[in-house]
Amino acid sequence: IAATIDLSRLLPLFSIGSQNLDGRATINLTLSGTISSPEVTGFCRIEKGAYENTRTGTILKDINLEVVSKDRRLVIRDGRATDGEKGMVSVTGWFDVDSSKDYPLELKIHLEDATLLRQDRLTAIMAGDLNLIGPLRELALVGDVVVERTEVRIPERLSPEIPDIEVIEVNRPADQPVRTPSAPRSRTRQSPRLDV
Questions:
Q1: What is the DSSP letter of 161?
Q2: How crowded is the C-beta side of 67, counted as CA atoms within 13 Å?
Q3: How far apart are CA 191 and CA 78, in angstroms?
């Protein structure tokens, strides 16, 4: 299999909104073996790709990625991108195409002054190392991430307070006592547990 793919045409196939992907991927693969035990050799290379998530403000530019396949293992030899400015993101690792082991993988992600959250009211620059390890159904994300700088912008105008509205009951029986509103229940939220 030898082909050049326009990455901008892939996202509509998966119905993923608020995300954009651009660039070209060069693929050269050879398939062998059986359906139950396939073997793939060759490579996939992306050069000068671009990704944007309009919801989080995540931008990756100058994406260069090379994946080499041998037998049942896909190996990321070189994966790197910029955040559109001075920050860098790099990734290495492997992925086994082995259903009997539930497709194990290990990815190492390195962040260097990377602006991964870029919104109107919040911007965050991060650095650190993350490891994504495990079979596909039991993935674990572990590592250390430092938020080097965060900018929070408070809007000039805050939304007005909600006014109290007096409620008058109509046609209430005379012998029925007036109901007083109960105090609102406090809600506690549990923070997710992350080993990061």
A1: P
A2: 19
A3: 35
- List pLDDT tens digits, range 101-115: 899 999 999 999 999
Q: Cβ(23)–Cβ(49) under 8 Å?
A: yes
Residue 41 to residue 18: CA distance in whole angstroms: 34
Residue 144 has pLDDT above 70, yes or no: yes
By the 8 A CB rule, do 60 and 37 touch? no
H or E segment and range at residue 144: strand 140-152
> Any residues with CB less than 8 A from the CB of 95 and at least 6 apart, and which?
73, 74, 103, 104, 105, 107
CA separation for the pair 66, 50 (Å, rounded): 15
Tell me the DSSP string of 38-75.
EEEEEEEEEEEEEEEETTTTEEEEEEEEEEEEETTEEE
pTM, entire model: 0.70
Record the tokens describing residue 96, joined without a space: 């086994």
